[in-house]
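Apologies for my clumsy wording, but are you able to produce some protein sequence, whichever is easiest, and the tokens describing how it folds?
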Amino acid sequence: MTKFKTQCIGLFAAIPLMAIAAPAQAQSVIGSGVPASTAGNSQERPIGFAEQVPATAALVILTQNGELLDVPGLSMTERGAVETAIAAEGFKGKLGHSLKLRGIGQRPLILIVGTAKPDDKGADWREAAGSAVQKLMKEEVELAIVGAPDPATMTEAALGLALGQYRFDRYQYDVDKSPASQKITIAGAGASEAQALWNGRHKHLAEGVRFVRDLQSEPANALYPQSFVDRTRAAFSGIPNVSIKVLDETEMRKLNMGAIVGVGQGSPRGSRMMVVSYRGASGPPLALAGKGITFDTGGISIKPNKGMWAMKADMSRAAAVMGATLSLAKSRAPVHVVAVAALAENMPGANAQRPGDVVRTYGGKTIEILSTDAEGRLVLADAVQYVADRYKPFALVDIATLTGSVGRALGSQYAGLFAREDAVADRMLNAAEESGEALWRLPLHPAYAKAVRSDIADVKNSGVTDAPGASAGAHFIGYFIDESLPWAHLDIAGVDWNSSSRPLSPKGASGFGVRLLDQLARDWTAD
């Protein structure tokens, strides 16, 4: 062999050794490390109250029957023109109906909005006002709302305005025009009292819903367990009588929380258990536990791609319990509440949980994993045992986007309610009626409990059975809650995201649960 050939062979032989000796630098950043946006959402219309209608404002008239009562801001001539238009259109003031008029007097426009519920069940001032502000999103004018007859209904209208005009547009860079941001004045007698009612409660309720919708809408590269914790801490900063505790994976392992840690073990983003306590009253608390899967691929039991993008909102109910607690704390409600968010990201990594695994929970009970896509009930298993043991609540409500079957059963109008006791179910249904967030009770029949029994562990998290999926899921969570503790389970998988706009909730994140739980906590206190 020539000297040249010997040198070449030696050179090529050394190439793999050089590659091994100098590996490429491993990526140390989780995700891209580049934020998709540093902006906030566009400015919403500020809401205020006054006795008189601003002279240059567009006028929104709320009416229950198509008649104009004492409408401030209209001259006799203008009133006559409006009444003529109402008669010509046959407008009867029904909820969901409206009439837009231009060219009357000096007003930029006049919008007549119906408030009457079907079957003579009174007026819905919230939905009417929410519908009105959505119709005028692009009208670059100041607005004045009239027609609400007293301070209480004026405040209800304000809540509708705040909820209806919500927008999440922080990632829309290349847009020609943002929604209008000129102020809204709700005008009428008793404006000062209405302002006090708004500042005392309803303003904070709207802020709680907005907080939840923001979290729901964020993409999973922006919202994950730790960033959820950070944003929630910031929201509660400076509010009195609030305490916050966060468990990381190391602490949860010490407490044998194998269910929640197991769900998140395939992700580089660690799981968290966040507990926010608000003590506005003495005695034991009402506990609220929420599923917080910040993104759900299904894990090893991976979901199909179609619709998987929506799994960024699988943390919606962890957000809801925090949003309701935020509303209660900011309004200084005389209640004691503890809210727990069970936070994990369900990813199919090399260390991911497998079907067939068995995990141990906080209370020592065990779960056989038949599907890694039935993960919400796993994180809640540890959450409900932990909050019951450490905080000794007088009652516990858990809330989750748990099963697709509840959406197929109830559609997009109701969340599913499960309760062992009729008295608990009645409390939940009353709060639903008062808040406007509808529930429908579904069966928690003892026969369905067999669906979650395991041959190798105490229970299994999935499996083909004759039991309805939503009922089986409720029985699974109920297995980890002592029968002496009043308990309700809410499965809201059909109502967490709107495919089209509604008067109180534009297309997208609904924020469902904040108004319901806020009302429940005010009504249901320790005896």
